[in-house]
Amino acid sequence: MPRQGLLGIDTLTRPEIEQILDRARDFQPRPDESFRKFNILTGRMVVNLFFEASTRTRTSFEIAAKHLGADAVSITAQASSVSKGESLVDTLNTLAAMRPDAIVMRHASSGAPHFLQRYLETPIINAGDGTHEHPTQALLDARTILDRGAKLEGLRVAIIGDIAHSRVARSNVYLLSKFAADIVLCGPASLLPKELAQIATGVTLTTDMNEAIRDADVIMMLRVQLERQHEAAFPASEYFRFYGLRPEHLRLAKPDLIVMHPGPINRGREISSEVADSQRSVILNQVENGISVRMAVLERVLAGEKTNGTAH
Ligand code: CP
User: Fold this and answer.
1) pLDDT of 25 higher than 80
2) Is 193 exposed, middle or buried (0-12, 13-18, 19+ CB in 10 A)?
3) DSSP string across 32-57
4) Which of 52, 154, 166, 39 is nearest to 107 (CA)?
5) Predicted confidence band of residue 234 (pLDDT cuts 50, 70, 90)
6) What is the reported pLDDT for 191?
7) Strand pairing partners for 184?
8) Per-residue confidence at 78, pLDDT binned at 50, 70, 90?
């Protein structure tokens, strides 16, 4: 039986998510200590194949693999033979022929890893596909919320910004909905597709930022993804005025509200420096949890008996 990768949150069950989040906690370092190293994946090889830019995801997958004793190799689109005209399927088959134990992949096309997994026995871990899903981001976001002592059940989470182009929003909607959270999606109408209210239970939409923030336990701010917009969906000069998170918003919010952002943050566009650097911000906690959550995911995908991952 081929190993299972991780393509999205949509297809995970709640117990599977809980298992990953619980295991990630085991890998978290104690305060003021470094991450511990394990021999769980000694002899395993992970290939990181990134066709889009990344700081957090790529680095933390590489660090996570090394902390578990695996070897990790990272390849970017510019450094791959796709830049010489090789097809994506041929590139993946070429890498699979080198017998890695898993391929971590980011691609600008929604569904690219799902399509490729049909051709490969090597498990693929989705590190972000177009506007579709970014499963490990939603998992590390959930781990970060739980670390604050909150429960996901009944939590009110406002996700604010460029919802239309956000794989982070979609994966978080799938995850939070499985835990019966109350999810408010907020952004300019041109970046707030009505269909998203239908993909899971507990989702409401609003274009009014104050309404989204009122009674929220968690705010997740999103970057405006200009690279995915064919024409400007909202005037850049107006965006911060209407949808930028500023200190006055926090005065409306619950006293124990936390502010999250998957990064990269654009200060002065979707979030002010005062908020990003405030006590409410858990942005760097999210980054740190990226390592423990990805260790849990790599262990889930790779631990156990080694199998032959040949390409078809
Ligand atoms: N959050 C996130 O995916 O960041 P990177 O693009 O830096 O990986």
Assistant:
1) yes
2) middle
3) T-PPPP--TTTT-EEEEEESS--SHH
4) 52
5) confident
6) 93
7) 158, 204
8) confident
Entry pTM:
0.94
Which protein residue's CA is at the shortest distance from atom 1 of ligand 1? Answer: 262
Could you give the C-alpha distances from 252 to 161, 216, 278, in angstroms and in order?
18, 10, 15
User: Which structure tokens are listed for 31?
Assistant: 């305060």
CA–CA separation, 118 and 138 (whole Å): 24
Tell me if 264 CB under 6 Å of ligand 1. yes
CA–CA dist 289, 262 (Å, integer): 11
* CA 60–ligand 1 middle distance (angstroms): 10
How many CB atoms neighbour CB 77 within 10 A? 16
Q: How many whole angstroms from 68 Cα to the centroid of ligand 1?
A: 21
The answer to whether the CB of 172 is under 6 A from ligand 1 is no
